[in-house]
Amino acid sequence: MSNHLLIKDIFHETNICGVVSLRRNISAPNRTPTPASVAEQQLCGGGVMSGKLYAIGVGPGASDLITVRGARTLAQLDVLYTPAGKADAQSLAHRIVAEYLSPNTEIRTYHFLMKAEQARKEAVWDRVADAMQREVAQGKQVGFITLGDAMLFSTWVSLLARIGHQPWLEIIPGVTSFAAIAASSAMPLAMENQTLTVLSCTSPESELEQALRTHDCAVLMKVYGRFATIRSLLGRMGLLDHAIMMSDATLPTQQCWYHLDECDRQLELPYFSTILVNKNWNASR
Ligand SMILES: C[S@@+](CC[C@H](N)C(=O)[O-])C[C@H]1O[C@@H](n2cnc3c(N)ncnc32)[C@H](O)[C@@H]1O
Prior knowledge:
- This protein has helices at 7-10, 19-27, 35-45, 68-75, 92-97, 118-137, 155-163, 177-185, 205-214, 227-236; strands at 4-6, 52-57, 79-83, 106-110, 141-146, 169-172, 196-200, 217-221, 243-247, 255-257, 273-278.
- It folds into two domains: 4-175, 3-Layer(aba) Sandwich (Cobalt-precorrin-4 Transmethylase, domain 1), CATH 3.40.1010.10; 178-278, Methyltransferase, Cobalt-precorrin-4 Transmethylase, Domain 2.
- With 285 residues, the protein is an alpha/beta fold.
- A six-stranded parallel sheet has the order 1-4-3-5-2-6, sandwiched between helices. A five-stranded mixed sheet has the order 7-8-11-9-10, sandwiched between helices.
- The structure holds S-adenosylmethionine (SAM).
- Keywords: Cobalamin biosynthesis, Methyltransferase, S-adenosyl-L-methionine, Transferase.
- Its EC number is 2.1.1.-, 2.1.1.130.
- One of its GO terms (biological process) is methylation.
- Pathway: Cofactor biosynthesis; adenosylcobalamin biosynthesis.
C-alpha cells in the first residue's frame, strides 16, 4: 500500500519543528507549555495550531462495537498510527477500523516490542510520541488506535505520560473487553454496594488472592500463560462456580467456558482471554 509507512521511515522526514522543542515535552510531560514552545508550535502549524491528536479506543474486536465518535473521527484523519501485527500481518486494531478509514489516510505502523527490555520499550514510546507530536504541530489530524478502552492496560498510557494532557489531544473511550464479555456471557460485573476489582494475572499470586478475598467481583485480565495457577487459586477459594472465562470476545473465534473446573489445566489460551468472577452470581449453567 502506497500510504503505508513503517515507523522507522517517519524519522527520515524533515520538518521545521526542532527535536529540541519536542523533547522538552517528553522530559516534562505535565508541564504547562512555555511561550517559547507555543511559538514553535504556531510556527510549525502556520498560525494557531490546528492539528489534533486523537487516541481512539476501538473496542474488543467486532467492528460495530466501535463508538460513533470513534468511527467519525477515523474517517477524517490525515494520519493513523497503528500497531504492527505478527509477521507484518495487519493488527487486530487495524482490522477493526479498516472499514471506517478514508483511502487518503496515511498509515504509520509501529511495533511496541512487548517482551523487550524496558529501555528498548521506552525508546520506542519516545519515538512514537515524538513523531505524533511533530505531525500535530504540522497541522495534521492524527489518530492512534488501541484495543478496548484507551485508558485501561494500554500502551497509549505510556505515550500519554510523554505527551501530557494537551488542548490538542482528545481521548475517545472504547468498549472495554470486560464489558463486552459480561454482556456476551450474561454475567453481571457488580451491583448495588458490591465492589469490583480489575486485576492483571501477571501480578503475584498472593496479591491476586488478597484482592479476590477483599472484593465481591473481579475481572482477571491477561490470564494467558497463567491459567493453571489462576484455576487452582479459584478452586482453593471456592470460586469456580462463580467464574466464567472468555477468549476472543466478539470475534468469530470467541469461546466461553462456564465450568473452569472442567477445563484442562494445560489449556492453551489465546492472548485475548479474560476471567470474570462474581461471588453473588452462579456462573455455571
Ligand atoms: C493489553 S490488555 C488490553 C485491554 C484493553 N485496553 C481493554 O480495554 O480491554 C490485553 C488484555 O485484555 C483482555 N482482552 C482484550 N480484548 C479481549 C477480547 N476480545 N476477549 C477477551 N479478552 C480480551 C485480555 O485479558 C488481554 O490479555
